[in-house]
């Protein structure tokens, strides 16, 4: 049963779309990115979000102080780390923690072993980028990994390829951002189509 995370919400319309379509998780990006928002905006958006949808804060090489400040201010459910955060950093929080790993080849998977965390987010390795590139990687490399790890699959997922991704990887969660956007903003019809496809795989 793959659950759905829509990442990079930044407008009130995005919240309305999420409330109507009910993904399991939504992500707010506090890292430098075209989807970055400040904590005041995030708090305001979260106040309008359906309480059944869990909130994920996306961080990139932030300090413990910054993460704790934003987490408490916004009352986030999950902390997602996308930078070079070491295991001890990720292990120091009471909230649920997901760590992103950029997958280039099978050697990339070795890094997962050092982390005792709630979820491993697997994204595509692109030189100079920390995610959100809209590019996929070879899913066959991680075909059996979800048997032993809680996997959030990211990287170039769209309504057109998400069914194949779920069949091959069997992730616990699929994480989509650019794949449900048109010209950089979330698109209701694309979100709806993707969520229908994922839920169809679960039937």
CA-based shape: globular
Radius of gyration: 16 Å
Oligomeric state of shown chains? single chain
The number of domains is: 1
Key descriptive features of the protein:
single chain; alpha/beta; TIM Barrel; 8-stranded parallel barrel; 6 helices; 22% strand; RibuloseP-bd_barrel; EC 5.3.1.24; isomerase; PRAI_dom
Q: Could you provide a short overview of the structure?
A:
This protein is an alpha/beta fold and 203 residues long.
Provide structural commentary.
By secondary structure, the protein is an alpha/beta fold. The chain has a single domain, classed as TIM Barrel (Alpha-Beta Barrel), CATH 3.20.20. It contains six helices and ten strands; from the N terminus they run E-H-E-H-E-H-E-H-E-E-E-H-E-E-E-H. The strands form two sheets. The chain has an eight-stranded parallel β-barrel with strand order 1-2-3-4-5-6-7-8. Strands 9-10 form a two-stranded antiparallel ribbon. Strand 2, helix 2 and strand 3 form a beta-alpha-beta unit. The chain is globular and about 40 Å long. InterPro entries: Aldolase_TIM (IPR013785), PRAI_dom (IPR001240), RibuloseP-bd_barrel (IPR011060), TrpF_fam (IPR044643). Its EC number is 5.3.1.24.
Secondary-structure blueprint:
Layout: E1 3-7, H1 12-21, E2 25-29, H2 39-47, E3 54-59, H3 64-74, E4 78-81, H4 87-90, E5 96-103, E6 119-124, E7 151-153, H5 162-169, E8 173-176, E9 181-182, E10 185-186, H6 188-201
Parallel strand pairs: 1-2, 1-8, 2-3, 3-4, 4-5, 5-6, 6-7, 7-8
Antiparallel strand pairs: 9-10
Helix pairs in contact: 5-6
InterPro entries: Aldolase_TIM (IPR013785), PRAI_dom (IPR001240), RibuloseP-bd_barrel (IPR011060), TrpF_fam (IPR044643)
Pathway: Amino-acid biosynthesis; L-tryptophan biosynthesis; L-tryptophan from chorismate: step 3/5
Catalytic activity: N-(5-phospho-beta-D-ribosyl)anthranilate = 1-(2-carboxyphenylamino)-1-deoxy-D-ribulose 5-phosphate
């Amino acid at each position: 049963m793959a659950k759905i995370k829509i990442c990079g919400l930044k407008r009130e319309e995005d919240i309305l779309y999420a409330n109507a379509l009910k993904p399991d998780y939504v992500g707010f990006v506090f890292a430098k990115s075209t989807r970055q928002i400040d904590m005041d905006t995030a708090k305001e958006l979260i106040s309008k979000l359906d309480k059944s949808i869990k909130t994920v804060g996306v961080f990139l090489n932030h300090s413990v102080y910054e993460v704790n400040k934003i987490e408490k201010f916004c009352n986030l459910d999950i902390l997602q780390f996308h930078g070079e955060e070491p295991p001890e950093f990720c292990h120091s929080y009471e909230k649920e923690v997901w760590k992103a790993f950029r997958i280039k080849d099978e050697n990339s998977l070795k890094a997962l072993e050092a982390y005792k965390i709630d979820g491993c987010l697997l994204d595509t390795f692109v030189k100079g980028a920390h995610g959100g590139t809209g590019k996929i990687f070879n899913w066959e490399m991680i075909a059996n990994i979800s048997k032993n790890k809680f996997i959030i699959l990211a990287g170039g997922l769209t309504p057109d390829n998400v069914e194949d991704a779920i069949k091959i990887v069997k992730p616990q969660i699929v994480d989509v951002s650019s794949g449900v956007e048109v010209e950089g903003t979330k698109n209701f019809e694309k979100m709806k189509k993707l969520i229908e496809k994922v839920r169809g795989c679960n039937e």
